[in-house]
Amino acid sequence: MIWGRRALQHVKRFKRLPFQPEGLHRCMSAATQNLVVEMDGKSGVAVVKLNKPPVNSFNLEFLTEINILMEKLENDKSCRGLILTSNNNKIFSGGLDIMEMYNPQPDRLAEFWRTLQGMWLSLYGSRLATIAAINGHSPAGGCLTALSCDYRIMAPGFTIGLNETQLGIIPPFWFVESMINVTGQRQAEVCCQKGLMMTTEQAHSIGLVDDVVPGEAILERAHNEMKNWLKVPDFARQLTKRQIRKPTMDRLIAKRDEDIQNFVQFITKDSVQKAMGVYIDQLKNKAKK
Ligand SMILES: CC/C=C\C/C=C\C/C=C\C=C\CC(=O)SCCNC(=O)CCNC(=O)[C@H](O)C(C)(C)COP(=O)(O)OP(=O)(O)OC[C@H]1O[C@@H](n2cnc3c(N)ncnc32)[C@H](O)[C@@H]1OP(=O)(O)O
Description:
Layout: H1 5-15, E1 27-31, E2 35-40, E3 45-50, H2 60-75, E4 81-86, H3 106-124, E5 129-134, E6 138-139, H4 141-147, E7 151-154, E8 159-161, H5 173-183, H6 185-194, E9 198-199, H7 200-205, E10 211-212, H8 218-231, H9 234-254, H10 256-267, H11 270-288
Parallel strand pairs: 3-4, 4-5, 5-7, 6-8, 7-10
Antiparallel strand pairs: 1-2, 2-3, 8-9
Helix pairs in contact: 1-2, 2-3, 3-10, 5-6, 5-9
Residues 54-55, 57, 90-91, 94-99, 137, 139-141, 164, 169-170, 172, 262-263, 266, 283-284, 286-287 line the site of ligand LSE3YFK7.
């Protein structure tokens, strides 16, 4: 993984924090700044709760924190599975932090995007069995995060989707391919072009979500489903996953710099900045009402 200077500063700060999952063999919980981690040493399953109020939006620091945790879990031989959920029972994740993209410093903007690419590569390519327990709304980057897992369970009454086109943004090819790989080409064409935010039931009907379970039962269901995934020998499951996901990951790895350049060029356009400003005003005004 390639880290920028600012991210490295953050890594140093993070390393001094107490969470050290390696070699844990009991049930333990730990917290970093924006993540709550419960590690069951017996089953080898880590439950990671996104915990960045108000909406678990991903800024550079939060993405860096997630990347560091992923690296630790990947390197912890006792860890076999990851359940990703939210500590906020209404919002899984509001997606990328829009403030990162408004009046940005180009260097930070590039670093932000590289760190998002890093998060996607580590979650999508994880050796762990990964289950998203989607216990709240999950637009855009939140949906991408769920799509990167092996299995998705969602609570009713929420919405999910890659809604970028609704904001005048073109979803990058690796967002779209993540959707295609889960729902198939036709469904992905419709929901990505239209930028659909789907209800839990609609998402279930197109295969974006595998299972619908009430919020209060979602973690129990995730643990039960995890048991099924962990019945398969790790090595066979991991290599099969890699075989299936490698072409998509390789495309991003080959075009990583080009993808960053495209993103920075697009976001810094006057017209995009203007639209972003209007969108932020709408969000803030809605919050005030
Ligand atoms: C060829 C291709 C080339 C280049 C590629 C180009 C472009 C790709 C670029 C970008 C891809 C982006 C993907 C994204 O993820 S963009 C982010 C999309 N997310 C959203 O639009 C979500 C917006 N938020 C909501 O819909 C709602 O807030 C909610 C459903 C998440 C929660 O609703 P609530 O009613 O519970 O809460 P609110 O009152 O709306 O919000 C509370 C509080 O939070 C602030 N906020 C909400 N979302 C975000 C966010 N994503 N980032 C930052 N801040 C957010 C909101 O403004 C309120 O703040 P205040 O309390 O007013 O301070």
